[in-house]
Structures are given as C-alpha cells and as structure tokens.
Design goal:
It is a single chain. The chain is 61% helix and 4% strand. It is mainly alpha-helical and 944 residues long. It is flat. It starts with a helix and ends with a helix.
Length: 944
C-alpha cells in the first residue's frame, strides 16, 4: 500500500524490461516494508512463470556457515544430480557439511553455484530474492555478486534487501539501490484504518504522528490501543504512556544499555521530538554527554546539532513504556520543572497528574492556544477538562476542546467530545458551540441535511446565548446552505438570521455557577476557587463580540440568502495581512468574509489574503477550518488561470482530507482535479473518479459537489472530442425548466453550456436556460457573470446581435481578471469571424486567444485556437518539429507507432514494453504536444 513507484521500479527488474536493472537492492529501516515488497515481487515473478529462489539472512542462525545457501537451493535440490559430477559434489558437500569431511572452499562453492544458476536460466528466467543480506555470511554474498557480474545477458535477476541507509560493502558498483522511505500520510492512514484494532478520534491522529510513516510502527501501536480509544473514548494524557512494553527488536538493544543511558532515553522519549539536549540534560541533572554514547552505538538515537533524534519510532515508544509508571511520572515532573514554554510545561504536568487538579487544568487552558498547531490545542483543552474538579469548568473546557478539535477536522474526535458535552452539561452557550463544531464537520463529511437540522434545533437557545454566538452558528448554517444548494436551506437560513438579529448582545461576564455535586467546588486550591472572567468559549467560536467579526458573519449569511444583492458590493475581510488568526481577530471573521467574497465573484480581489489565510491555517493544521476555504481557493486559482497553483493545492488538500476521512471534501477536490485536466488538455482516454469516495457522498444534498462534478465531466468529454457527452453533463447543471442545480456554481457554466449547445445543434434548448440565468442574476450581475452572459448570448440567442455581444464581452478590461474565460470568448469570436470570411480580424482574435492559452498552460484551449488559426491560413504555431524535440527517444518511438494506429499492446511488443508502460508514456506526452487524445497524433505528425 502506497508503494506504487517502488513496485514500478521492482517490476522493471523482475519483468526484464529493456533498460531495467539486472539486480536491485532495497534499503530502509526496520519495519519499513522491505520484506513485504520482496514477497510481492516473488508472487509476481511466480505468476509470470519465473523460477524463484529465495533466502533470508538471520544473524542468530548458527546452524552452520552456509544457512543462506541452504535456504536458497532448497527448491532445486533434486536438480543437483543433473550437474557435472564435480559441481554436484561441491554443492552437496556445502549443503551437508556433517556428512562431508572438511567441505569445499568458498571459491569452489561459488563456481558450482554459478553453473547451477546458469543451467536453471537456460530453461526459464530465474529470480533470486534475498532478504536482510546484511545478516548473510560473506561467502554467500560474494557468490551472489559473482552471479550478477558473470550472468549478464542471461534471463537472471536478483532482488536483495538490507537494513540501513547505505548498501553493505562488497556489492557490485552496477547494482541499483532503491531507498524505501516512510509511507505518505494518506497511505499510512489507509493502512492504520484497515487494522482490526483501528483507533478513532484523537488517538488515531497521535498514532499517525508517532509512527512517522513506518508500517511496522503503525501495526504495533494500533495493537496496543486501549478499548476506550477504539470506541472514541477519552483515554489518558501522554501519548506513549498508554503502551505497555512491546516485544520487538528494540527491547533487547535497550535492555543491554547501562542504567544511566536507559534513564536518559526515558527522559528523551517523554520530552518528545524537538526538545533540546540542554533541556534534557538539565532535567536529568547531569552534565556529561557521554551518557548518550551507548545508545548512539546501538543505533537507537543520533545527536543532530542540539537535538536528540530517535532513529525509529518504536525505539522511542519502547524506551518510554519499558519503565515503571513511577519513573515515568518522575521524568514528566523533572521535565516540567525545566522547560521554558508554558504549553510544554502544562503538558508534562498533566501527564504526571493522576487526580483532578484545578491549577494544572488552568495552566493547560491558559496556554492551549500557544501550541504550534490546533492538534496540540485540542489535546490540551481535553486534558484540562479531564483534570477539572468542578463540573461547570469541566464542561466549559470540554466545549472549547470540541471547537478546537473541529478546527483540526477529525470527525471521530469531534463527535466524541460533542457527545460528552451534551451528556454532561446543558448550558445553552456550550450546547450551541458544540453543535456548531459538529455541524461543520458533518458538512465536510457529506451530511448537509443532518447538520442543518442540528443547527435549527439548537437555535431555540439563541435568546440565552447572545448575538455573537447566534451569528456564528447561523454563519455555519450559511456555509452548509451553500454546500447543499437546497432551496429549503436558504429559506431556513433566513429564519435563523432573524432569530440571531433579535438576540441581545453578549455580555462578557463569567458564566453563572451551576449546581455542583457535594465536594467538587472545594476540590481545587485557591486558584480554583477564584472566579475568572473570560469569554465562555475561545478559538473559532470565541471572541465573537467584535463589530468587524459580527459584520463579516452577517455579510456571509446575507450573501447566501440573497446572492444577487451582494454582487459587486465591497467585501472587506477586516484583517490586516500577517495578523495572527487566533487573534484579536479570529478565524471566523476572515473565513466568513472571504467566503462572502467568493460568492460575490470578488475572491480574486482578495487573493492575497485568501492565500495568506490558507497558509496560516495549513501551518496551524487547522484543516477543519481550511476545508471551508480550500475548495473556493482552488476554484479561484482555476478561474484566473493559475493552474499550477491549483494542482499543487488540490494534491496537498486531498491528502489531508483522506487522512481525516472527509469524503465530501475529497469528492470536491477530485472533481476539480478532473476539471483542471480538461482545461490543460491532459484528460486520460478513460477518466475515472475514485468510487470509494463518491459512494460516501449523497449528491442530492451536496449540490455544490454535484455541480463541480457535472462541469468537470462536461469539460472532460469536450476535451476528448465528445461534444454530445459534454452537452449532457453541462445541461444537468440546470433542471428541465432552466432552474440552476446550484444557485452560484451552475450559472458560472452558462457559457460552456452555450458552446456545447452550438456545437451539437441544440442552441434552441439552451436559450430558455440562458434567459433564466439572466433573470436570476438581476440588474447588476458581477463583471464575471456579465462576460459569461454576453458570451452565451452571442453563441445561442437568435434574437440578439451576436457581434455586439461578443464585443460587449471583450470591451470591459475589468474582465481581464478571468483570462481563460476571456480567451474562450476570443476563440469563439474568431471562429465566427472566420466563417464570415473576415480572416484578418479572425486571426487577431485567435492569435490573442492562443497566446493567452499557452501562457496559462490551457492545452485544450490552445489546441483549439491553433486548429482555427491553421484553418484561417495562418502558419502552424508552435512548430511541430520543435514540440517533438522535447520528447525522449523512447517517447518519440511510441508517438510514431501510435500515430500509425498501433495499439498499446502492439507498441509494447515491438519495443519490449508492457502495455501499461506505453499508456503511461502517452499520457505524459500529450501535454507536451498540446493535444488531448490519441487521434490527434496523426494530424500533428502530418504537419511535420
């Protein structure tokens, strides 16, 4: 899982692909997957009819000096008799030293083994797989090296693996190495979720962080997950503390260390990555760095500048969990007395505290938002709730933890905390805050109706919570209404806004004291007895009483309810560049204002702030908030022609959404990726969308996602030359009577629908849709919608002057903010001019369209403009010969054969490549040549 590139390189060796290596060495740390990949290679080779010989080195195997040779030759012992007598006797003696006095020397064994391997290769291809060659005897390794050198050109391949970063000494210099790094975050999460003891919530994220992409660590850590975490329970503080001693290879190395070094490693493991050696030495109360030397010599840790780094994630876990609880507690207390940062000090004190303690809980809460990311913030607030002796403080802190966990974006964690808040306390403000956080996460998952209904249900508490929290909850409902696109949600949003406006402004006073069980109120010290005046909720839903924040929230809701009334209106995010998002300004303020700007087609104006916000949220690991803006940012990048930025953002955000298990967000990003391929002209011949993602999304209540999918499929079909298919998909963006499927996204595709209608002879069917869109945009459509409406009208409306509407679409230079859409107008205007035999004017429009498309990397638009220029009599540009010179020699051969009409299989047979490899080469070649499908190759080469 997650090793496609590595498997591709292994296949080049195993399948004897031309240019592939004869021998390949896999390198990597313990548990990284070397053995699994070798096993996969053996299966593939066996299915391919190869003769597979395998062995595994084992340092503890002292049966005799030739244990690896015996493993390797076990399947072919019956063929030794067919060898020449001398070689047969040598190998028999080497494999059975007890029955032969003295035994042959290494040179004799090496020569005999070469004869055997050569004879086996004469009957069918041979693959030799040896795992852990660093633990094999030297003579065996030398014999393999001799085979690699002397059997070149024979159907003989060797796959080896070794632990470490560098190859063992003595290997041939021609041997290629493949370093196996950690799994990607997406692959690691998928592997963890397949475990029968897969964790949920906070513990799942902690395991992913602790394992650092090591498959063995993921398996081992998930095996020790407490039942509470599998069910989403709270668990206890301190990540490694939940792990009893584990029986893996690191335990023996740790047991062999001096006691002082073992104690030092306990402190290093408790401190976590990033703590300085100076802090560790101070906590240990020692000055001699030699205490670390035995651990360095054992390969457990490394000193890198002023930091101590564990070489393997399981080494850290074992170094911590092997010590008794009392020693671990003392380590935490010593570290708490040494570290300077208050949030780290609070973390260690919490891990060392077994009973409720208001002073520690207060320290955790006060320093929670100092953490580098919201994962640490949410964890600290949850720990603060656990240590709170008073029920009222515990519930408030738990509600703040819900809000912070929502910012992280993990649904399991949010649901667990939300359920505990609702179960433990019924304070209206806390219930509204928790409901807003849960509804937001449910929307990112897919459940728009359930999320909206939850907010309607808690809106009965609005009179008791104050206007600020009521507006925040209503703004979340506004975001849900945008995503769902359901008319009933827009209508219900109006009612929520009216309720929020009728509430009184919030008062910044301490929440009223709740009735507490006897003894709880006196459980804390003096700090716990003092009433502390603070906003009831901090973070995303906290500090909401500022006028800028409330104005931004109300602007967003108004834009959702009546988008036509906000078009062109000034939208001010209200936060200077570089201001920290946790405030005095909040995530709520800027996110709401930028969302309103996207609805008003003004997102490009605030692109700098939108990108800055995204970067800050990415640094804070606040994907639960970022998920509300990242799709809009991708839409903005694509609309202004920043395709490279859009591709990078899609790839990065999709990985985050996969790790957090947010299928609706993944579906949006997949649709955007397909649309981007269509715009670039790089759509594969048979575009596919991940079925597992789309099965989890109900398109009926996610109309924004549905609209993006329909547009992407329509553009992809058009890019592949299927205009009828393009029309069908784009027409589904509107109902039978012309109403938009989604009130914002559907109208933005009206020009693309008109182009498809004109090309398929369905202009009459498009006219009612165009009229409906024009009417719903009102008297003051945005600059972008004005351009699109004029473009569509010029193409399909027979009652209008097409020439005039083309010119109106181009006359407003403000529309240069959308270069792709403006170039699209020029392309279709140029086509009209050429057909009217106004060749000179047509060339001017088409040349400008081509230049813009090439600058943007819009391959499909560039190819269309180039075709029309050629049809107008202009010289072909760019030069086809220059395009072909970009290709490698092998790619050039594939292109020539494909242009002659050969299939991938036929090309592969001629060039000794697999059909999949041929298809991959063609897929990479198309964008270089400015084409989108196989049929265009013949035309391109005819020009040459």
């Amino acid at each position: 899982m997650g090793r496609d590139d590595e498997i591709g390189r292994i296949l080049r060796c195993v399948t004897r692909e031309p240019g592939g290596p004869q021998a390949l060495l896999l390198l990597g740390e313990e548990g990284i997957g070397r053995t699994t990949l070798l096993g996969h290679a053996r299966e593939l080779a066996d299915d391919d009819g190869m003769f597979v010989l395998s062995a595994q080195g084992w340092a503890a195997d002292h049966r005799h000096a030739r244990a690896c040779l015996q493993q390797l030759l076990a399947p072919v012992l019956d063929q030794l008799a067919g060898l020449p007598a001398e070689q047969s006797q040598v190998l028999s003696a080497a494999l059975n030293p007890v029955t032969h006095d003295g035994g042959p020397d290494d040179a004799q064994v090496r020569a005999a083994l070469l004869v055997l391997l050569d004879r086996l290769a004469g009957s069918r291809p041979v693959l030799v797989c040896v795992d852990d060659i660093h633990a094999c005897d030297r003579a065996f390794l030398d014999a393999l090296c001799a085979g690699i050198r002397l059997l070149t050109g024979r159907p003989f391949r060797v796959l080896l693996s070794a632990c470490g970063e560098v190859p063992p000494p003595g290997l041939p210099p021609v041997m290629e190495s493949l370093h196996l790094g950690p799994l990607s975050a997406t692959s690691a999460a998928a592997l963890l979720d397949r475990r029968p003891t897969a964790p949920t919530g906070r513990r799942r994220l902690e395991i992913l962080e602790e394992a650092e992409g090591n498959p063995a660590a993921l398996v081992e850590l998930s095996r020790r997950v407490p039942t509470a975490f599998r069910a989403g329970g709270a668990g206890s503080g301190g990540a490694p503390a939940g792990h009893p001693p584990t029986a893996h290879a690191f335990a023996a190395r740790l047991d062999a260390l001096p006691p002082a070094t073992g104690r030092a490693l306990l402190y290093a493991a408790a401190a976590g990555p990033g703590e300085s050696v100076a802090t560790l030495m101070a906590a240990l109360d020692i000055d001699d760095l030699a205490v670390w030397a035995p651990a360095e010599a054992a390969g457990l840790v490394a000193l890198v500048e002023d930091r101590l780094v564990f070489r393997h994630p399981l080494a850290r876990v074992t170094a911590y969990s092997r010590h008794p609880a009392g020693e671990r507690q003392q380590a935490r207390q010593d570290l708490a007395g040494t570290v300077a940062r208050p949030e780290i000090r609070a973390h260690h004190l919490a891990a060392a505290t077994l009973r409720t303690d208001e002073s520690v809980a207060t320290l955790l809460e006060d320093s929670a938002w100092r953490h580098a990311d919201v994962v640490g913030t949410a964890r600290a607030l949850e720990q603060a709730a656990r240590l709170s002796p008073r029920r009222r403080e515990r519930s408030r802190r738990l509600a703040e933890a819900v809000v912070a966990a929502h910012a992280v974006g993990d649904p399991g964690w949010v649901r667990d905390l939300h359920d505990r808040v609702v179960r433990d306390f019924r304070d209206p403000e806390l219930v509204c805050a928790a409901a807003g956080a849960l509804a937001s996460i449910m929307s990112l998952e897919s459940a728009q109706r359930e999320a909206f209904d939850l907010l309607v249900e808690v809106s009965e508490h609005f009179p008791a919570v104050g206007r600020s929290v009521a507006l925040a909850v209503t703004a979340v409902a506004g975001g849900i209404a945008v995503q769902s696109g359901l008319p009933e949600h827009r209508a219900g949003l109006s009612e929520l806004l009216d309720r929020a406006r009728k509430t009184a402004p919030a008062q910044r006073t301490a929440p009223a004291r709740a009735t507490e069980p006897a003894g709880e109120s006196d459980a804390a010290g003096e700090t716990g007895r003092a009433e502390r005046h603070r906003p009831p909720v901090t973070g995303f839903l906290g500090h909401l009483a500022g006028p800028d924040t409330q104005r931004a929230l109300e602007t967003l809701v108004t834009a959702v309810i009546r988008p036509q009334n906000t078009t062109g209106a000034p939208v001010r995010p209200g936060q200077p560049h570089g201001a920290p998002l946790d405030g005095p300004y909040t995530w709520a303020s800027r996110t709401a204002a930028l969302a309103a700007a996207c609805l008003a087609d003004e997102a490009d104006v605030y692109l700098g702030q939108l990108r800055e916000t995204d970067a800050q949220l990415r640094t804070a690991r606040a994907f639960g908030i970022r998920g509300w803006t990242v799709v809009a940012l991708v839409d903005t990048f694509m609309s202004i022609g920043w395709f490279t930025e859009a591709e990078t953002l899609i790839r990065e955000a999709e990985a985050e959404a996969a790790v957090l298990r947010l299928p609706r967000l993944r579906a949006d990003l997949h649709a955007q990726a397909l649309a981007l391929q269509a715009l670039r002209g790089t759509v594969p011949p048979e575009p596919r969308l991940n079925p597992s993602v789309w099965r989890a999304v109900c398109l009926d209540e996610n109309r924004a996602t549905h609209a993006r999918l329909l547009r992407a499929r329509g553009l992809a079909a058009i890019a592949l030359g299927d205009w009828d298919g393009g029309w069908r998909h784009l027409r589904e963006l509107f109902t039978a009577d012309g109403s938009p499927l989604h009130p914002v996204l559907s109208p933005r595709s009206i020009a693309e629908l008109a182009v498809a209608a004109q090309r398929t002879g369905r202009s009459e069917e498009a006219v009612p849709v165009l009229a409906r869109v024009r009417a719903e945009q009102g008297e003051r459509p945005s600059t972008r919608m004005t351009l699109l409406l004029h473009h569509a009208t010029a193409l399909v409306d027979p009652d209008e002057d097409a020439e005039q509407h083309f010119q109106l679409a181009l006359v407003n230079h403000e529309a240069d903010r959308w270069p792709w859409e403006r170039a699209h107008v020029r392309l279709n205007y140029g086509i009209r001019l050429r057909r009217c035999r106004r060749i000179r004017e047509a060339r001017q429009q088409l040349t400008t369209a081509l230049e813009t498309a090439e600058r943007l990397g819009a391959g499909a638009l560039a190819a269309a403009a180039a075709r029309e220029l050629r049809a107008s009599g202009a010289a072909p540009t760019p030069d086809t010969a220059a395009l072909l010179e970009q290709l490698t020699a092998q790619q050039g051969q594939i292109v020539l054969l494909a242009a002659r009409g050969l299939s991938n299989r036929e090309i592969g047979e001629q060039l000794f490549l697999s059909p999949r490899t041929v298809g991959s080469h063609l897929y990479n070649v198309y964008p270089k040549l400015g084409i989108s499908r196989r049929q265009q190759l013949r035309d391109l080469l005819e020009e040459k």
